[in-house]
Amino acid sequence: MKKNSHRLVFAKKRRRGIERFRPQFESLEQRILLVADWTPLGPFSATNGQVENIANKPVAGALHALLAHPFNPNTLYVGSVNGGVWKSIDATASQPRWTPLTDSMPSQSISALAFDSADANSNTIYAGVGRNSSYARIGNQRIGLMRSTNAGQNWQVIDGGGVLQGKNITGVHANGSTIVVSVNVADTFNPANIGIFRSTNGGTSFTQISTGASTGLPGGVSYDLVVEPLNSSVMYTSVVFSPTAGGNGVYKSSNAGANWTKVSTPAMDALIVANTSNLEMAAGRNNEVYAGIINAGALAGLFRSPDNGLTWASMDLPQTNETGGNVGLNPRGGKGPTSGPPELIAGGQGQIHFSIVADPNNANLVYVGGDRQPMGFQDRGSFPNAIGANDFSGRLFRGDASKPAGTQFVHLTHKNNLGAAGGGTASNSSPHADSRDMTFDANGNLIEVDDGGVYRRTSP
Questions:
Q1: How many whole angstroms separate alpha carbon 458 and alpha carbon 447?
Q2: Is-contact 163 205, C-beta < 8 A?
Q3: Partners of 440 in beta bridges
Q4: In sequence order, what are the residues at sequence separation of 6 or more whose Cβ sits closer than 8 angstroms to the Cβ of residue 292?
Q5: Paired residues of 299 in beta bridges
Q6: φ, ψ at 19 (rounded to 5°)
Q7: Mean pLDDT of the 420-432 span
Q8: pLDDT tens for each residue of 183-235
Q9: 388: left (phi over 0), alpha (psi -120 to 50) or beta
Q10: Per residue in 302-332, pLDDT tens?
């Protein structure tokens, strides 16, 4: 798959040239007339990228983490794969400006971002460090966490006296002196260095929670850490490759990560197998929780709980009907290398290219992102495909759990007169391929980051 990592806007040597390469956009008045479109939010450095029907096709570099201010839509933070943390204070502008925040820090490989929920002004920010590059996971040293108490102006390393050193952070939550992180791999990969770690003294020290009987959380890989939006004491994590029999699954804590209870069903657990390469979740404001299970780089199961994890039901898998059959969220096929295991073929990259977010207002709606569009069936056909894509651009869907099985998902990109009714955009637009994170800003717009930068969709 086409990548833009080699020309990251987030490289220091390119910063002076950003203004020279800014593309010309439609006027703001023209934009307002359009609804349900994807627009780029920058930072801009390259044009003619892997996006569709966006003026000049601007792209930047790969972003893995995204943080929207809870009540100021102009403030956005993004975490770059290997370019540090960046901030915009005019994110609703047609060409937002961005400022690098962590150039002086020892690592620029950002894997997670979170506000401290105890800070009512949202000035305290945590950045988790982890390697998630599409280029063989190459990155900076894993130093644990970085913390800013003044909205990103200054940062300090938080590693719990060295406990978090060498660990690949996949999620972080902070509430005052209590900090919880999830870890999927480590420089020294063994049960003692993965799973959930917790601090009750502001990060001075961390204790591994994934120990089994005493905490209810068995050892194993933790791909995600999700906190309920309205109750910071309630959180969810995933356990994969557990050495404990029956240990794999989705777990819930109701006391800020101190103790955990398994909440996944046997049907969910049956999908967590030897080739499970990701398991991410999303929690909504109306007791709903979603869990997406990725096997061998492709979405294998999507489940929804309407009652904080007490019961679960499976949802449709998002797909489009291409020539010859249905193609899912993470297509595989002839684009890129055509030999070797599926994970090495362009597409099928859900281990790092998967995003999921719950709608902030409607308990039945969920949004998911995968890697790229297919050509026909498994890339043996040609463009345009079933929803009007003419490039290997972004692949995103909206699901509605209130609809009957088989009709729950519609496409969030490309044409609105093709594919499932209610899908598409007003201008056949699509962001870059390889989605990594999604959230909603304070105005209710859907913000998405991927291997090409950060994009906004109105009327999600």
A1: 9
A2: yes
A3: 446
A4: 278, 279, 280, 281, 299, 301, 302, 303, 354, 356, 368
A5: 294
A6: -65, -35
A7: 95
A8: 999 999 999 999 999 999 999 999 999 997 799 999 999 999 999 999 999 99
A9: left
A10: 999 999 999 999 999 999 999 878 999 999 8
